[in-house]
Amino acid sequence: MGRKKLEIKPIENKSSRQVTFSKRRNGLIEKARQLSVLCDASVALLVVSASRKLYSFSSGDNLVKILDRYGKQHGDDLKALDRQSKALDCGSHHELLELVESKLEESNVDNVSVGSLVQLEEHLENALSVTRARKTELMLKLVENLKEKEKLLEEENHVLASQ
């Protein structure tokens, strides 16, 4: 007998949500491990919980090495999106949100054209891609800083070990 199809929606009960998160996180890590073993692939997995706790998994290669490789391969994309983000200032994001709110007010919904909604969607997707690019850039900078700290700590460890 098959399993019931689960509707994907936020879980309201906090304890049930935490249990589901833990189980699914462990399942996701197991799938990443299987992918790594079966396909001889380098896999890096980062999961951040609602309480901002970080969980990570990396196969064979060090997590930092995998993220470095990603940064090198997608550096051009990140630079292009960074230029885009500099072109759009914070005020434009606020203006965009105000525009969306005004277009979607209950009394105004019947007067909104499909073209207008499509244009709003494109603006939102563009703002989202710029935001994601900035987040990725900040994460890569953080990884760089952590690598530098790791090197310094290793050097300090060697000095202490030699004493």
Automatic annotation (TrEMBL):
<keyword id="KW-0238">DNA-binding</keyword>
<dbReference type="GO" id="GO:0000977">
    <property type="term" value="F:RNA polymerase II transcription regulatory region sequence-specific DNA binding"/>
</dbReference>
<dbReference type="InterPro" id="IPR036879">
    <property type="entry name" value="TF_MADSbox_sf"/>
</dbReference>
<feature type="domain" description="K-box">
    <location>
        <begin position="80"/>
        <end position="163"/>
    </location>
</feature>
<dbReference type="GO" id="GO:0009909">
    <property type="term" value="P:regulation of flower development"/>
</dbReference>
<dbReference type="Pfam" id="PF01486">
    <property type="entry name" value="K-box"/>
</dbReference>
<keyword id="KW-0805">Transcription regulation</keyword>
<dbReference type="GO" id="GO:0005634">
    <property type="term" value="C:nucleus"/>
</dbReference>
<dbReference type="GO" id="GO:0046983">
    <property type="term" value="F:protein dimerization activity"/>
</dbReference>
<keyword id="KW-0804">Transcription</keyword>
<dbReference type="InterPro" id="IPR050142">
    <property type="entry name" value="MADS-box/MEF2_TF"/>
</dbReference>
<dbReference type="InterPro" id="IPR002487">
    <property type="entry name" value="TF_Kbox"/>
</dbReference>
<feature type="domain" description="MADS-box">
    <location>
        <begin position="1"/>
        <end position="61"/>
    </location>
</feature>
<dbReference type="GO" id="GO:0003700">
    <property type="term" value="F:DNA-binding transcription factor activity"/>
</dbReference>
<feature type="coiled-coil region">
    <location>
        <begin position="136"/>
        <end position="163"/>
    </location>
</feature>
<dbReference type="InterPro" id="IPR002100">
    <property type="entry name" value="TF_MADSbox"/>
</dbReference>
<keyword id="KW-0539">Nucleus</keyword>
<keyword id="KW-0175">Coiled coil</keyword>
<dbReference type="GO" id="GO:0045944">
    <property type="term" value="P:positive regulation of transcription by RNA polymerase II"/>
</dbReference>
<dbReference type="Pfam" id="PF00319">
    <property type="entry name" value="SRF-TF"/>
</dbReference>
<dbReference type="InterPro" id="IPR033896">
    <property type="entry name" value="MEF2-like_N"/>
</dbReference>
<protein>
    <submittedName>
        <fullName>Flowering locus C</fullName>
    </submittedName>
</protein>
